[in-house]
């Protein structure tokens, strides 16, 4: 499989929290542009910590040690003076449980843009329609834009969370178990949406389970106890893993 351009380069990155727990241990990994990059493995392996490190949400928690580099388009995001607010616009994140603002569907999507200073109604309307279409939600929402977001189903709220990230037109979208609370139909809609979104965005996902990882991965990385065990093209890694720990996890022998 020909390697696409590298969007994010993680170089020998380690992270330890102030409680002494080492969450990431010397991780070196490429995140490829316009691909679905899957991070999978048992709970506590460091996957979510890596997502938070990539858009510096770990700045908000107690980190006692951090070493190595994370490069976005060749720039070290932890370099002194790096614009963290701009980084979080470029690298959006969607969490496992949908987080809707106590506002209408429309305002959920325009809130971030308004904070960034966008006031033009036409631009806001265009962003709402574009992001809802990209999240495969427009047909369901076009007549409900002024309904409270809390009235949506769980699957709709999760796609609204995705649309809210897309409204800011990021370059990278990270999703942390985005379908863990969803039914199979809603899960399939999100997975189909990701296949379309990768034409425009770089996607990093921590999937709900191994089966989902195998379905969606263009590139896959297996994490175990804070370490990256194996990385490669998804179809190769899931069919022919090179490390016995990866093989055992995929086969369901542990985890």
Write up this protein:
- The protein has helices at 47-54, 84-90, 105-115, 121-134, 138-141, 154-167, 184-197, 210-216, 234-239, 244-250; strands at residues 6-17, 22-32, 36-40, 63-72, 75-76, 91-94, 172-176, 202-206, 219-224, 227-233.
- It contains 10 helices and 10 strands.
- The model has no long low-confidence stretch (mean pLDDT 92).
- It has a domain at 6-98 and 173-250: Rossmann fold (3-Layer(aba) Sandwich), CATH 3.40.50.300.
- A 6-stranded mixed β-sheet has the order 6-7-8-3-9-10, sandwiched between helices. A 4-stranded antiparallel β-sheet has the order 2-1-4-5, covered by helices on one side.
Beta-strand percent range: 25-35%
The profile of the biggest β sheet is: 6 strands, mixed
Instruction: State the helix count.
Output: 10
Mean pLDDT over all positions: 92
Shape: globular
CATH topology of the domain at 6-98 and 173-250: Rossmann fold
H-E string: EEEHEEHEHHHHEHEHEEHH
Give the helix proportion (percent range).
25-40%
Task: Identify the strand order in the major beta sheet.
Answer: 6-7-8-3-9-10
- End-to-end distance: 29 Å
CATH top-level class of the domain at 6-98 and 173-250: Alpha Beta
| Rg calc | 18 Å
The secondary-structure class comes to alpha/beta
- The total of beta strands comes to 10
The CATH superfamily title of the domain at 6-98 and 173-250: P-loop containing nucleotide triphosphate hydrolases
Q: Please state the second-level CATH architecture of the domain at 6-98 and 173-250.
A: 3-Layer(aba) Sandwich
Q: Uncertain regions: pLDDT < 50 for 5+ in a row?
A: none
């Amino acid at each position: 499989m020909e390697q696409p351009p590298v969007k994010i380069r993680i170089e020998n990155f380690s992270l330890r929290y102030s409680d002494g727990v080492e969450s990431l241990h010397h991780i070196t990994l490429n995140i490829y542009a316009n691909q679905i990059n899957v991070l999978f493995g048992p709970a506590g392996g460091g996957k979510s910590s890596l997502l938070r490190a990539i858009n510096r949400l770990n700045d908000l928690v107690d980190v006692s040690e951090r070493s190595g580099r994370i490069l976005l388009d060749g720039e070290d995001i932890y370099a002194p003076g790096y614009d963290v607010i701009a980084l979080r616009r470029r690298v959006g994140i969607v969490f496992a449980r949908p987080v809707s603002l106590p506002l209408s569907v429309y305002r959920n999507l325009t809130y971030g843009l308004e904070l960034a200073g966008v006031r033009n109604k036409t631009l806001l309307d265009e962003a709402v329609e574009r992001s809802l279409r990209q999240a495969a939600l427009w047909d369901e929402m076009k007549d409900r834009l002024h309904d409270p977001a809390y009235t949506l189903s769980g699957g709709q709220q999760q796609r609204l969370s995705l649309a809210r990230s897309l409204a800011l037109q990021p370059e990278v979208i990270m999703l942390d178990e985005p379908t863990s609370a969803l039914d199979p139909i809603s899960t399939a809609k999100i997975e189909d949406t990701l296949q379309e979104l990768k034409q425009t965005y770089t996607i990093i996902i921590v999937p709900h389970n191994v089966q989902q990882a195998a379905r969606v991965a263009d590139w896959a990385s297996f994490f175990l106890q804070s370490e990256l065990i194996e990385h490669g093209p998804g179809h190769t890694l899931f069919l022919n893993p090179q490390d016995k720990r990866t093989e055992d996890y995929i086969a369901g022998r542990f985890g």
